[in-house]
Amino acid sequence: MPLLGAHMSIEGGIFNAPLRGKEAGCDVIQIFTKNNNQWKSKALSDKEITAFKENLDKTGIKAVASHDAYLINLASPNKDVYKKSLTAFYDEMNRAEELGLPYLVFHPGAHLGEGEDIGIKRIADSINLLQSKKAKTNLTLLLEATAGQGTNLGYRFEQLADIINLIEQKEKIGACIDTCHIFAAGYDISTKDGYTKTFEEFDKIIGLKRLKLFHLNDSKKGLASRVDRHEHIGKGMLGLNAFKMLLNDKRFQNIPMILETPKEKDMKEDKKNLKILRSLIGR
Ligand code: ZN
Ligand code: MN
Ligand code: MN
């Protein structure tokens, strides 16, 4: 059975996330380990970390991933932003480690007009620098495939592969496929042929063994629109068929799948989306 879940809010304290996940019916969750729109944030206290781990135990939820803050751009040509990004990303790595999370998902970066090759090199250099400060770690960094909005890199599997090829600690780097992003980037996983071809390409270019996480989102915008707008499962341009193929794909039964769809505090949307996804299993 696939491991299904959703991104959970940490409002009121990071230890609340597993409780929310349980309430929404998640097997797995993704979290931000700090406010995702700020550069800095208070360190996690021992008390918070212990409470988080206790709540994971209590609920049986497997916390699989942290997602990095949106301000971070490891490809930024702006010296000030770049410096802040490195510091903030290192903090993200530390937080994920403190919480015992296996994965930190991040958007590769935006080159902001400097060019794709320079951007790719800068991202890889950043990761090498950051990982070199951590000789011993259980944390794997996951490059998220993007929709390619603006100058964001990572909208072709080749770009993710180029970055991975430059990374020194290869056993600590992986990839995350966001269904909305790759569809918006031009990979048509809504049809059987397109689905087959997409994963053949992924395997050839990156290698399925690097694929550690899925973000399950339908897409408000069309194929190859290069616009990143998440939609509820089955309500967008991707449609249910894509999710049916994914959930029943034998290759992906042990890869956690996380919703990042719009929601209110009561999480009724998550509950509904999870119900729809689970109804597709075995069909
Ligand atoms: Zn993301
Ligand atoms: Mn995503
Ligand atoms: Mn997105």
Description:
- By secondary structure, the chain is an alpha/beta fold.
- The chain has nine helices and ten strands.
- It has helices at residues 16-24, 46-59, 79-98, 116-132, 157-166, 179-184, 192-205, 240-247, 268-280; strands spanning 4-7, 28-31, 62-67, 103-106, 140-144, 173-178, 211-216, 218-219, 230-231, 257-259.
- It has one domain: Divalent-metal-dependent TIM barrel enzymes (TIM Barrel), CATH 3.20.20.
- The radius of gyration is 18 Å and the shape is globular.
- Helices cover 39% and strands 15% of the residues.
- The strands form two sheets. It has an eight-stranded parallel beta barrel with strand order 1-2-3-4-5-6-7-10. It has a two-stranded antiparallel ribbon with strand order 8-9.
- The mean pLDDT is 97.
- The structure holds zinc ion (ZN) and manganese (II) ion (2 copies).
- One manganese (II) ion binds at residues 144, 178, 215, 260.
